[in-house]
Amino acid sequence: MGAISWRxxxxxxxRYFWFTKAELRDFLLVVLFFGLIFSFDxxxxxxxxxxxxxxxxxxxxxxxxxxxxxxxxxxxxxxxxLGYRPDQRIWWLGIFIGLAVxxxxxxxxxxxxxxxxxxxxxxxxxxGKYRYGPSVKSFGYAAMLGPVANLLFAGILKAINMSVGSSxxxxxxxxxxxxxxxxxxxxxxLDGSRLLFGSRLGYFFFIGGMLGFLVLFYVLAxxxxxxxxxxxxxxxxxxLVFYIAFERFL
Length: 250
Known about the structure:
By secondary structure, the protein is mostly helical. Helix content is about 70%, strand content about 5%. A two-stranded antiparallel ribbon has the order 1-2.
């Protein structure tokens, strides 16, 4: 799709950016279940403490709501620009798996994979190159920007927390990292599967870039700008390796 005017983009945002009632319901359900998962082991430690648990649960709801909204918002911005109406939905199987794993692991393993993106073509985009249906590749890129947004947001929070030293910010960072990692998995209908089906090379570029960012920023503690540049290089390396090893023979 070619570039659109800022005026047209603003019109689309005004009409399609905000959640529908069904999407808002699913968003709140995701926040509810993710909040319960995130605060599962924060009810007083060795001794149960109702007041502390409720306080931590409320904090968890806020952190989850912000993180999931960032994930969805970036996807919606991209999808609308590409000529699609975004449609965020709850993935019940992922929610049930997350709850089951949480209970059986006694809170040691938290899985946040319960929401996914669908797209619908805007009416005025049904002509020309889009007349045969949505582009699988564009769908994949729009979906994958959700995990990327969470990863970058985690990096910003981590940079801030280096001077603040807040345990809440630490938890916020961890939540966004888990959201990014789980949603990158190539398991339908998660974001990673959308990009893998649309562009295998694009998927491995994103995987390389995200892994590079994690190592460079969280292990080597380089500056966030340097990490972004080097992560791009790592992504290109992953792209080349996959292309040379597999793609050129297809």
